[in-house]
Give the backbone structure.
Amino acid sequence: MNAIEINNLSKAYKDVKAVDSVSLTIEEGTIFGLLGPNGAGKTTLISMLVTMRKPTEGNAKVNGFDVVKQPGNVRESIGIVFQDPSLDDELTAYENLEMHAALYGVDKSYRKKRIDEVINLVALGKHMNQMVKTFSGGMKRRLEIARGLVHHPKILFLDEPTLGLDPQTRISIWEYIKKLNKKEKITIILTTHYMDEADDVCSRIAIIDSGKIIAEDTPENLKDALGGDVVSIKCGASKTCSEELSKLKWVKSAVVHDGLIDIRVEKGEEKIPKILLLMEKKGILVESVSLRKPSLDDVFLHYTGKTIREQEADPKAGMRQRMAAWGHKR
Amino acid sequence: MNRELEAIYALWKREIIRFFRAKSRIVGSLGMPFFFLAILGTGLNNAFSFPGMEGNYLQFLTPGIIGMVLMFGSMFAGIIVLMDRQFGFLKETLVAPVSRLSIIIGKSIGGATTAMIQGIIIMVLAVFLGVQFSLANIVLLLVFMFLISFMFVSLGIAIASVLDDMHGFQLIMNFIIMPFFFLSGALFPLSSAPEILRIASMFDPLTYGVSGLRYILLGTSEIDFAFSLAAILGFSILFIAIAIYLFNRIEE
């Protein structure tokens, strides 16, 4: 069965289309990653799936329930971990989970047992009766993941679960996510803009940019589709360089980003001398050269012509993000 | 239905837990009304007497201060929705499979309960200052106190639903809460006030609260008790309706 079926889903805010006719099917049991820069529409897409926002067009089914017509059923069958913290700081960890259990109608006699279960899953058992305001960022995030699981959801949505956390904590959060996907056998849908982490965790990935899904496959297939190697060079006149390189027959593409030129070629190790020779002839000084297999970053660059970081520097993207931000609409 | 009641109970319990946990907040919020009674009340006690006043000034002032405590406590409990929004917790309740109506009801009953507890504490403190009440109508008193609190929590929630952040709080304090308090007849009898104040006080929900409390505690009031009760009920229904409407509008 499919966990999620999305059909031409759109969401417009005045003149900006935050999500633009997205169609997508997600199978049960997958860890599905929605990748894209800030403001690409990830959060808006998710908030429609969790029935927090109504789509302007199209429809979506979550666990077989329509997000517009059966929001109650959808909500009962999913767990959500928001991008921003949503715990009550002045309650203890246990009280937060108990509150959640009550709101989701978890049977009273069973509550304590279930809370023990989920809190131990994220290794917070020792801190159960501690006030949440004493928790570190990573602990809060783990508690939120536990909370999302209390009512046995079939799908867990995680919006940027590792945003703002230090690298070590990020690794441990991903470990928990992988573990509960196996242990609780639930579908996980997450958004992130850490490409390397997504590559490691997700079994399938969709790349979303400007409200549209531009690629969707397993991380391996996405990278393989690019093929070959990436030679990255740093030189003074990147613009002219990339133009020169693009003319060559054996260069699939040469894109400038962050002051580097990424050149996609077959058998990169044989092409490096050729590239250097060409630069030499042109009298351009090459400062550094590196060779790598394509990463998801390259996949993203290939489809959007930009890296995620450059997109974030785009002021329009920031505006989109603010408009899509959770809050009032007046 | 059971689910909704569970949610209401859980939200009510949250308010109570948070209230008792914030001891400094309780002391802080009761400080001002206590000094009103202990200093202003006893200070003016011998100097003041006005036509139609039964007993002394402290006696007259106490129901007004109880009304003030109920209003401050419950308005604040309502406006705290803003903080829930800022700190994200509101989102957790909004995506739960319960109706928004239940969320509002749970919050307002919870907020009203905590305001009532504060009202009762100040009432007990007043007794220590030598104020004498009749407690013949204790049930009526509690019901009436609850209604006043419920009315103002609803107003607080309604206001919180349209404000963006806590910066607006000072505005509410100065332009809604304080005028409500001064106009309510808590400090002076309205019957001897200038016409314009008397008319303005008729639009102040707290006027009916204070008047009703005075009737229940002291047996006299300037406004007929039945009318006060009806006005409080009317304002409660109006405010909760506005609160529900505005709260439902929070994102979408």
Summary: Residues 2-248 of chain B form one domain. The mean pLDDT of chain B is 91.
